Structures are given as C-alpha cells and as structure tokens.
Amino acid sequence: MNGEELVERAEAAAERAYAPYSNYLVGAAVLARDGRVFEGVNVENAAYPLGICAEQTAIAKAASEGIRPGELEAIGSTASPCGGCRQWLHEWRFEHVFFRNADGTIAEYAPADLLPDTWDLPEA
Ligand code: THU
Questions:
Q1: Ligand 1 atom at shortest distance from the alpha carbon of 51
Q2: Which among 34, 38, 51, 85 would be 20 to 30 A from 17, CA to CA?
Q3: Which residues line ligand 1 (CB under 6 A)?
Q4: What residue ranges of the chain have pLDDT lower than 50?
Q5: Which among 41, 53, 75, 94 is the best mutation to test ligand 1's pocket, defined by most ligand atoms within 8 Å of the CB?
Q6: Quick one: which atom of ligand 1 is closest to the CA of 80?
C-alpha cells in the first residue's frame, strides 16, 4: 500500500469522525509491517482537552491488537499531524508519514523531520 492509498483510507475514515465541537473531521490509517491497516478518527469530548486525535486513535487500535513500536511502517492522515501526535509518531518508530497537501499532492516525511531533537524517557 503506497502513501496515496493510505491517505485515501484516512479520508474515507474521516467521515466517521466524532467532532461535534470543532466540526473538523480528521482520519488516519496506519500500515503494520504484517500488512494490517488500522483506521482512526478524532474523538472529541465536551471537556475539550480530553478529545483525542485521529492519529492517536489509529495507533491505539493497533496497540490494542498487540502491535508494538517498530511494527508500524507508515501512517496516512488527512491533516498534518499536530505537535503531540508527532511525539506519538516518534514513540512508535514509523518510517513514513503521509498527508495530503492543500494542493492535493501527497506530502511524505520521516518522523525525525517532523520532530527534530526527539525526547525519550531515559533508560532506568
Ligand atoms: N486533530 C487531529 O485529529 N489530528 C491532527 O493532527 C490535528 C488535529 C483534531 C483534534 C480535534 O478534534 C480537531 O482536529 C480540531 O483541532
């Protein structure tokens, strides 16, 4: 599955977003190395800060099926990932991040390009 196809999966998922407060519908799709694809949407909450991003939902779905960091190859999103999501992308060791530019083309980044000087919890 290429970047364009992953973003298309994200765009289809976005129709299921739960975003009654912002009305900004976001979808994401993550591709696991074993070929599985997990889709996610933003899920908002009346206590606004409690809402979660589409990227986080997709990763959480993969994690809950047993996927671990290093096993997710690529993510496609309908939005350029927010700052917090960039830390998630670092944690999960993605290789490729795709999203659609305003002009319709597909942007591709490595997580390190989106979040330089990354932070990890020091080893105990
Ligand atoms: N949002 C995402 O789901 N992903 C992003 O990378 C950007 C922001 C959501 C969060 C919130 O539900 C809505 O977009 C407006 O900020």
A1: 12
A2: 34
A3: 19, 22, 24, 26, 42, 44, 51, 53-55, 79, 81-82, 85
A4: none
A5: 53
A6: 6
Q: Is the dihedral of CA 45, 50, 56, 61 positive or negative?
A: negative
Residue 75: per-residue pLDDT: 98
| pLDDT reported for residue 123 | 86
Burial of 113 (0-12, 13-18, 19+ CB in 10 A): exposed
Bridge partners, 62 (sequence order): none
Nearest to 33 by CA among 63, 71, 80, 88: 71
Q: Which of 99, 106, 30, 42 is nearest to 68 (CA)?
A: 30
C-alpha–C-alpha distance, residues 113 and 27, integer Å: 22
Q: Where are the alpha helices (DSSP H) in the chain?
A: 3-14, 54-64, 83-91, 111-114
